Amino acid sequence: MTALGSTYAPRVGGSRQLAGTGTLLRLALRRDRVMMPVWIAVVALMVLSMPGSLKSVYGTAAERADVMHSMNTNSSMRAMYGPVFDDSLGALTAWRIGTFAAVFAAVLSLLIVVRHTRDEEESGRQELVSSAMVGRRAPLTAALLTALVANGVLALLIAGGLASQGGAGALAFGLAIGGAGMVFATMAAIVAQFTESARLARGLTSAVLGIAFVLRAAGDSGTDGGSSPLTWISPIGWVENVRAFAGERWWVLLLFVAAVAAQGVVAYRLAGRRDIGMSFLPSRPGPAEGRLGSAGALAWRLQRGSVLGWSIGFLAAGVVFGGMTEGAADLVGDNQNTIDIIERMGGQSGITNAFLATMVGMLGMVAALYVVQAVLRLQGEETSQRAEPVLAAAVGRLTWAGGHLVIAFGGAALIMVLGGLGLALGYGHDAGPILGACLVQLPAVWTLGGVAVLLHGVASRWAVGAWGVAGAALLLGWIGPALKVPQSVMDLSPFGHLPKLPGGEMQWTPVLVLTALAAVFVGAGLAGLRRRDVTG
Amino acid sequence: MTKAITVSGLHKSFGRTHALDGLDLDVESGEVHGFLGPNGAGKSTTIRVLLGLLRADSGAVQMLGRDPWADAVELHRKVAYVPGDVTLWRNLSGGEVIDLYGRLRGGLDTKRRADLLERFELDPTKKGRTYSKGNRQKVALVAAFAASDVDLLILDEPTSGLDPLMEEVFQSYVEEAARERGQTVLLSSHILSEVEELCDRVSIIRKGATVETGSLAQLRHLTRTSITAELAGAAHGLAELPGVHDLDVQGHRVKLQVDTDKLDAVLRALTASGVRSLTSTPPTLEELFLRHYQEDTADTGGAAAPESAVTR
User: Fold this and answer.
1) What is the C-alpha to C-alpha distance for residues A359 and A80, in angstroms, rounded to an integer?
2) Residues of chain B contacting A395 with CB distance shorter than 8 Å
3) Which of A41, B6, B137, B311 is 20 to 30 A from B158 (CA-CA)?
4) A480 CA: distance to closest CA in chain B (Å)
5) Which residues, in sequence order, are bridge partners of residue B35?
6) Strand pairing class (B253-259; B244-250)
7) What are the pLDDT digits (tens) for B173-220?
8) Which residue, B190, B201, B198, B274, is CA-closest to B231?
């Protein structure tokens, strides 16, 4: 036996498949040492500050019961935040911030997983890592463990921080948020097996997240109590159905566990069947001769897939939201008290217009994410050193940037129009006012795009800060109104200045001022781009 | 003769790093100019200033008689550039990229393009992500050599990743570009045989400044010849002769190195003692380059040397 000890047969399966996981996990945590804590801290702070903020606005139980009632009878509010299950501060917190926190945990998780799996393979770094004592399953395991650490810390912070509102509710809420994060971590792990491009993996997983959000919104706008099947097939919908602080339904947490386990198994199966760096979608040969003849054509070629994806997404989301509009008005009809309120607000058309305006605003804020990512393609081209040889040809910097900016700013207009068309199609009438309302969002969208251009042109190292600015605008627009945040703070977001359309009065001043502001940002950014060194 | 590139006193720093520290570079029209230096010496930074991608902190830079920063776009019609590390768009085929660069530079000679694809054995239908490093390099090389209306080729370590056969193909195209089409070539390279084969003149830079420039013949003149001799009698006065290095006398055996232009005096001194046998190793470029490349380590090594002598 001892003589055989020095020879060894390669073990199939077993722990060697995971060799090096610990080291890779430490590497991942080291690489994410800034991004992860900042992200977790922002989400946790948002959640933990919620009870205090809500208390200052709805101090008495009567006020809270009142807001619960009016929110539950308002379908556009239900579409955005889901139903309220109890009038305690804890339950109101879970209602107001639950969807938001779950979406952010999901985005953080999908970014982490793609970054440490497909990104590594695409860049070729994985090859070098895997040539060392690293098991076949170690990279995926390390990526999922990193996501687990992030979601675990977030869940603990939420559970600990909200414990004063009720320990059980806080624990259930924290676990639900972390669970939603892990569902999308494992989802990203599956998607990353199919695409060779990390960008596409992130885009497709985000699209799944978007679908989950729209399904939950559609479900909740039609029914109260989160009982719609549409809500139940969305992992984002499970978060509200845990009913934290309102007679917790612990068994709903099992849905997260089951989904994570099932998706994890699929991801590992797929990962075990393919070669490193490859995907299941084989790459086909391209044309031997190209027709691309200008920097603009190249920009379009690089971004057209993304524009197409966003276009389909906006059209589809518009149709779904539009289809919910009639039901929104019907449902309130049952409640005499609400009918009175609605009639004071302008009757039946008041409620549908308010609903449409909320949906248009939501599309606008999401379009801001489109414009930021499209502008930051410039940054990506530059840091990957693909911009360098293009700029070394007879292409001016403004021409090079211009192509991408036309797609970013024009594309924003395109997807808003498509979103509006979808809304009008789903609703069945009022196409003109709805399209107009969508176009009115554009100056705010463009302003945030302008911030991205400015940062890229003047301080390219900080260009990712544009995500922070867009995220902050989203945050203000999403949770600001119910907290009665001071107008001076709300005014920081460009969306806060826009007239509420359809239904409201058109105001040209903010629209024109924001358009001018966007133009100034773009101009200043381009001026900076002409002056600075090309990085790479 | 007109100058294709003139650079004098070029400075460029990134934060506290001084990448270029008074660099000079002169490239005549129609010549193949070797641009050499150890890693991190500032070759690529210089090239990026020449391409108008970086803005010079100070110093005068002219390329084809124009300012590379102010006239970047106009200049680039006349310039083809091959980076040392070619990154392609993953979803574009090699052929598409070649034609794109051709159009962006103002024209592609389709006959030469077909020729190049054949000689470099490059499949233009493959997508960017499926090319190996050498093949990515070929994509950029084909685009540069097929450019129809270019006066200046700037090649930054263009053959890294090419196999020896392809290296030969590359050399034949550089020859053709310079000799038949009169294009100027600035070639940054670490492959000395390639430099020796192709370059009319070379510039060697170190720590962001030019340390040597001239034709290969002139540079050879600056190298040292090593001599081993067995003498009939004792050697006299070798140590006092100018240009003698690493003198090692053991009885009648003498080993030394001498600056090639001081060779004559050494030979006289040796024959004065009577020469029984003599081996002389001619200077190689390698020695010259290594001497310049190693001065970095020699500078820092100087302080450490006595310490190691003590421990021994």
Assistant:
1) 9
2) 73, 76, 104
3) B6
4) 41
5) B188, B203
6) antiparallel
7) 999 999 999 999 999 988 888 998 999 999 999 999 999 899 988 877
8) B274
